């Protein structure tokens, strides 16, 4: 394997590992569920993206052509992680899980909780 590819793989692995470590630490240390959602959706998604990019470069070199499996996994994670975090936040909101007392705009949580789903307007004809 050429030296420049080894450097790209090593740098991608190091960056991905650092982001995964930060995301894992944040998941353990952040105090409530609303703050804990930031760690896996942001830091861990970037971390796994770095590791998958390193894997894609390495596998592409071994096979001799572009390896798209890792690219598809990365795209899937980048699409599904924010959606999953949104669903977890909505569930926590509707289960009335309390946030920290120092969280700003807590009155908005009640407004969002009691909001009705929009209905489709009826056709007047």
From TrEMBL:
<keyword id="KW-0472">Membrane</keyword>
<protein>
    <submittedName>
        <fullName>Na+/H+ antiporter subunit G</fullName>
    </submittedName>
</protein>
<keyword id="KW-0812">Transmembrane</keyword>
<dbReference type="Pfam" id="PF03334">
    <property type="entry name" value="PhaG_MnhG_YufB"/>
</dbReference>
<dbReference type="InterPro" id="IPR005133">
    <property type="entry name" value="PhaG_MnhG_YufB"/>
</dbReference>
<keyword id="KW-1133">Transmembrane helix</keyword>
<feature type="transmembrane region" description="Helical">
    <location>
        <begin position="6"/>
        <end position="28"/>
    </location>
</feature>
<feature type="transmembrane region" description="Helical">
    <location>
        <begin position="71"/>
        <end position="89"/>
    </location>
</feature>
